[in-house]
Amino acid sequence: MGYDTEVLVLGGGSTGCGIARDLAMRGLEVTLVERGNLTHGTTGRMHGLLHSGGRYAVSDRASATECIEENEVLRDIAGHCVELTGGLFVQRPEDPDSYFREKLEGCRECGIPTRALSGREAREIEPYLANDVKRAIEVPDGAVDPFRLCVANALDAQIHGARIETHAEVIDLLREGDDVYGVRVRHDSGPGRRTHGVPGSTEEITAEYVVNATGAWAGQIAAMADLEVAVRPSKGVMTIMNVRQVDTVINRCRPKGDADIIVPHETTAILGTTDEEVTDPDDYPEEEWEVDMMIDTLSELVPILSEARTIRSFWGVRPLYEPPGRATEDPTDITRDFFLLDHDERDGVSGVASIVGGKLTTYRAMAEEIADHVCAELGVDATCATAEEPLPGSENLERLEDGMDEFGLRSPIARRSTKRLGSRSRDVLETDEPNPVICACEGVTRAEVQDAISQSGTDLNAVRIRTRASMGNCQGGFCCGPMANELHPEYDEETVREALDDLFDERWKGQRHALWGEQLSQAMLNYALHATTMNRDRDPANAGPSALETGSESLEYAAFDAGEGQ
Amino acid sequence: MAEMAIEDDVLVIGGGLAGATAALAAANAGTKRVRLVTYKQSTLRHASGLIDVLGYTPAGKGPLTDPFDALEELPHGHPYERVGIDAVRDALSFFDGIVGDAYAGGHTDRNALVPTHGGTVKPTARYPAATAPGLASDDRDALLVGVETLPDFDAPLAAAHLEAAGIPFDCRGVTLRFPGITRDDAKVTRYAHLLDRNESVSTPSGEAGAREALSTAVRDHFEGEPRVGFPAILGDERADDVRGDLADTLGADVFEVPMGPPSLPGIRLEELLYDALEAAGVRVTSGVPVVGYETGDRAGAGRRTERIDHVVVDRHGAEIPHRADQYVLATGGLVGKGIESDREGVAEPIFGCRVPHAEDRYDWFVDDVFGEQPYARFGLEPDRELRPLDADGEPEFANLRAAGAVLGGYDYAAEKSGAGVSIATGYVAGTRSAEVSE
Ligand SMILES: Cc1cc2nc3c(=O)[nH]c(=O)nc-3n(C[C@H](O)[C@H](O)[C@H](O)COP(=O)(O)OP(=O)(O)OC[C@H]3O[C@@H](n4cnc5c(N)ncnc54)[C@H](O)[C@@H]3O)c2cc1C
Ligand SMILES: Cc1cc2nc3c(=O)[nH]c(=O)nc-3n(C[C@H](O)[C@H](O)[C@H](O)COP(=O)(O)OP(=O)(O)OC[C@H]3O[C@@H](n4cnc5c(N)ncnc54)[C@H](O)[C@@H]3O)c2cc1C
To answer: Which residue of B has its CA nearest to A509?
Structure first.
């Protein structure tokens, strides 16, 4: 039996979630399908900068203007997802004066509030800046948590009646003649809350209109209906430090270059990034030189970084797009603008549009434009309300701050929980049950983990992105187990064991790029805890291939010491 | 140098299981003056307190019922191969003598299988008395008791996991609110002290001693199992009394399931070792690091191997020389910080002894988290006297031996051999140092 919906959104990144929320708020019936968990793609692998527009003020003023407008909107509607850190464009002696002047002018013309600072003034704001920093421009950059932002959009879409289906991969676009009328998805057998699909099964979903918001994968999806979308995926590395060496966003003030920005994010600072075209967004090299370059180049701005501890590195792929015929060589020169490709107009195939390019900061404006287009296609007359209506968690944030004492939320842990949960804090944290800390690095309590589990089921990576549990110094060594324990007894032992293995593996992946110094010691401690103390590497319950090989498939307990006198 | 050098016969650097064993062995072998200098907390605070000797071969075969069979066949360079199987036996009996009744397992060569707080079972050679009634290789039924405010150990889940691991008995788990614990994030030592002191706590039926209150809470769920297991929080200094009282009131054997950090069984072992060091007359200086060394004359004309004349201890900014005839390096591995690394390489920081490692740091690991991890084998390569060797295969120093996790060539986490290697190599390094120091 098929399932029919009005609008089908493909992709659960910021773009797809933003579109789903917008359309659902306009009263349309929306279904969103995502092959992983929310933010599985680029959105979960970006730098976390809430652009002020300063970065584009010289090269691309239209983008800069849009950034500052959306920056201001997000502060209002997504207060619990952003941190108003402020930012600096820092000039070193070898960086050109002319560019500094152009940057300042550009910001002013785009309506980005600025203040020019001397080197000394800049160091008063950020004491770890290098002594020879010449001067700086202050701009309203901020930090944004892409996980919380996406989840809040999806939640609100759900509140407005949308069906959000994760772990559902589009395997085919359904096309008849010159009309696309739906997709076929395969429900994954991986962990996750599957309210609709049975793992391993496929489902046909038909729709009046299909929106392809799969970012770097948009070309692959389009090809399923014999359409061509030439996405040029470009990878970038980000290296996470264990503490915040800086509390404002630090940008290098020079024309363009790799490794030129540091974003403070929660308890960490994130260094980035590179820009290298890749052929396959799912399979590209993650290289040592990229990590080294982050540390070495950014130490020119903040020297203590060269000695500091990094906890992991990760890579993301930009869904860059160029209209046919431009053939720009250097990916850094490809526009950061987004494109709405109406396949009817472009290819004569109706019922589908693709969205590519853009930035997370401007996700809402992109979503608005796309939703307008969809409404026009479907002849629906409804206006956009996403710039005014706060996201769930961001309602009444001032009152929340006042109410902190009332909930007894002044402890450091409660403060951190409250920051993450925003106005949902009371609902989530007020409990008569004991509420111990599950993740000590990030101060995440049982109530928060349980709340995340109620949203996302057994997918502990989805719990992680909702709560930040396992994202601190220990990289899950200490808290993966307790997080998995929280799944029991709702889920059975085997499911819990698999969920734990998945999370532990995922945490290891990024740490591989930080394996020296303190983090290598931490890795050994984590390994010892899981392999030595718990023997999870040779758990007899996992009668896998290695167990068969060694003949220990059924362990003969009676052959072992049963204790003196037993 | 303003300060007078401190003089000893044997100086042990690092006060974990290996260093403590080395110092005790040196004192036992009749050396007059043994000193132990140690900096921070040892790995015992993280470790479960179990004494693994060898649970799996380096190739992954196991769990081994008898570690001694496999010890014969260890590859060249493995610390056990270096010291030899007899030394391993001697070291274990030495350990058994030190810990006395606090540990069990010495009655047999065979490994026991112990339930872990993650619900798996693991092979080990010696286990605390508190763990003895809880062996998974013992076929009596068991009830596991978890505590709502200790999220590390989910007893019903652990019980289900143990059953999936094929244990030969019925196992149930229940979760309780721990009487007398009011804070959600009380430290494990708080639970232990509450029971140690048998503090008066309020229960639904009035005030009661903490031990009795805990028994009462368990009794509501108890179905006559012959043994009842708790997370390892049952007392610190009076742990035996605590278990005894719980066992009496429940009418069942009571045991502890070893837990992760901070680990009370590990801390108890550390306390026991430090009591033994004091009794043996070993001088212990803690909280200060050894930061450097000076060499003296070559050991005899024509010999190329240098001798360490003294090491330098940083006492809160003052550099104090410590001189001894023989030195034992037991500063731990990556966890204890006896082995350090940066983006360029891996090193032993005090003496600069050679640590074999790949040049490219991306060759220090493999992608499978539980694969054969090169980093887990980082450490010094010693001769059969446990003297670290340089690139030419010569001892780095004539009078320096190394023991414990600072040694390389074995992956204790995969093999389950951590404490066993520390005891065997600590025993050999300490004994040998005493023998050669006049
Ligand atoms: C290194 C880097 C740093 C960045 N830093 C910033 C920054 O600091 N600030 C900023 O504003 N922007 C930044 N960006 C840009 C921003 O991250 C992206 O523009 C934005 O996240 C794109 O979101 P999206 O929803 O379009 O794509 P995605 O987040 O990639 O979403 C597409 C989704 O489609 C899913 N999908 C793919 N194939 C299928 C299928 N067959 N079936 C179902 N689902 C499928 C994917 O799993 C994915 O979740 C950065 C980008 C990169 C690469
Ligand atoms: C989480 C975990 C769980 C484990 N579980 C088990 C288990 O269940 N069973 C088992 O058999 N083994 C286990 N092990 C392994 C076992 O604990 C170790 O192999 C063993 O304790 C190592 O002892 P060590 O004395 O060599 O080093 P450590 O215990 O690390 O001691 C080294 C000491 O040297 C000190 N030091 C370092 N540098 C200096 C300096 N410059 N000057 C002075 N002092 C210095 C350190 O501060 C420390 O006190 C576990 C290990 C870990 C990490």
So the answer is: B367
